[in-house]
Amino acid sequence: MDATLDLDAQGATASARAGLSAVPADHVLPPAVVHHRPAVTELRLSAFGAHRAAVFPLGPVTFLTGPSGSGKSQAFAAYEALAGLGSGATLEEAFPDPRARIPDRALPDGEGRRGFRIGCTVDGPAGPVRLDLAVQAEPALRIVGERLSVGGQILLSTALRDPGRRSVQASWLTGGAIGVTRAPLPDDRLGTALLPLRVAGATAGQRQVLAAAEQVVVALRSVFPCDPRPDRMRAPVPPGAGRLLGDCANLADVLRRTRHECGTRHALLAAAARTGCSGPVAGLDVRAPAHGPVTALLDRGSAGPATELGRLGAGELRFLALALVLLTGPGVLAMDPAAELLSARQTLTVLADGFDRGLDRRQNAELLRLALLCCGRGHVRLVAAVGEETAAAARVTPGVTVVDLTP
Description:
Largest sheet: 8 strands, antiparallel
Radius of gyration: 23 Å
Number of strands: 16
């Protein structure tokens, strides 16, 4: 595996290699978006699972679709790994089974090394910033090359010079009389995430490096992977901090919190429940004894007694959980957003593999409406894997990016 990062040719055939659906000739493209908040707008994968030099554009609402085995889950795994590395995770934490990411027929190089490349583009106040990583998975897991660049100018580059050392040689732009600073960095962590601790910001070049690095870190840390598990959402839960877990098992406790603290969003969720849940719905309520577990309820109004959420169907529970995620923010979700910026200046990205799993057409339509409503304001972005029926409806819906992975 080559330890350098020469990925420029990869972007030249982005649409063809990603298998994107064609844009109709009469389709009017929207004006270029100015990203005032850092946001990942492109994901790149090379020799990663089923993907070969694939480039995925990511809009405010992005649906990935394709048959089983086309690589949707691999794309989500890569995004989650980048998010983990941006939050300070080690390479082993980000890729607990790195060999599973290597293509089956990938041959080792002369030194017995195999690996993959991943990268992304983060738009924001510093402009489009590219981050590219070359990861060696065998014989030892390590980063062998990293590049951070803006407009073709390389701000940070690392390379493995001595395989016997657990470090890479890093060079970053300094400007002034020095030009470039060189120093070793760990080979198991994202160098970009370490730059704010290494760069003083005393020169214009250093400030450019810091702005680009912080933009990437902020965007990658503002990610919430979500996969509601109805089997874990049925039982009453003990009262807690009211921060929603990725499997949404503590949904009842979060509803207890939103009912008191987020009246407007709670009302929007109740309105969505009227569409996505069977029978009359007057509102969402909770039963929270002073010393006991919290139970979430569907208020049936004059139609009858309230229904515990644990008695709802799996699709109804997934629908409510996903609607809640779209309508809330980092303060209500169990995540650790970047501290460099106020939450109002960050964009939360929701990752949802199997977004429409177990949902009917009515529920899918309502979630799509909520996604467009919430993501249209710039505070939330959604990247989701969906089936063909949901993708077909999204293709004719303005504001949705559909990435088709069908071979």
